[in-house]
Amino acid sequence: MSRLPLATRSNVPEDLLYVWDRTATDGRVPNIFGVMANNPKVWRSYLRLGNGLWADCGLDTPTRELAILRTALLALSPYEWHQHVRIGRGVGLTDEQILGLHQWKTSPLFSDAEKALFEYIDALAASDHPPAEVHNALAAHYPAAAIVGINLLAGFYLMTARFLAAMEVETEEPFIGWHLKR
User: 101 - beta bridge partners?
Assistant: First the structure.
């Protein structure tokens, strides 16, 4: 059970009900949003930033999901891992690719560009200043606009992981597991 109550639609001011309605399925929002809806204006801002990063981070959709999953794994965020396994599968990622993120350095499943991306995300999760050689390897595969997007995307999901942990937000259904076994 989360540390804060899950807000209901009746808790949301009328001018922000559209936020609830756009994120709800069968009248319910995911638990992360139920907790965030305790502060509806901040929740709306969070969604706007997240949507912008999803659309314009400079990565194609499957690569974006691999980046988010790698970030969730590094942050040990069960909620983000659980949600983005589902989303990743929905955009064509295989379970083999998803599981390959555990040992990406030795996996033949990933391109040099993807490996440079994962190395950068690993370095960013470990420090606020990735080494020059890691940055340069990323820059060999991605333009400046994508590097900005990658930084902000990884930072957004590291922040999200901290929020989820601090608020003890649980997955809506049983956790899929780090190795995709319940």
Answer: none
Same domain for 65 and 149: yes
* Structural domain boundaries enclosing 28: 9-54
- What's the CATH number where 115 sits? 1.20.1290.10
Count of domains in the chain? 2
User: Of all helices (H) and strands (E), which one includes residue 25?
Assistant: none
CA distance 162 to 36: 13
Of the candidates 150, 125, 120, the residue with the CA atom closest to the CA atom of residue 135: 120
Encoding tokens for residue 101?
Answer: 């993120």
In terms of domains, do 20 and 77 share one?
A: no
Predicted TM-score (pTM) of this structure:
0.97
The rounded Cα 23 to chain-centroid distance in angstroms is: 16
First to last CA, the chain: 19
Distances 8 to 42, 49, 142 between C-alpha atoms, Å: 16, 23, 42
pLDDT per residue as tens digits for the range 25-82: 999 999 999 999 999 999 999 999 999 999 999 999 999 999 999 999 999 999 999 9
Helix axes of 144-167 and 61-74: crossing angle, nearest 10 degrees: 40
d(CA 124, CA 162) in angstroms, rounded, equals: 15
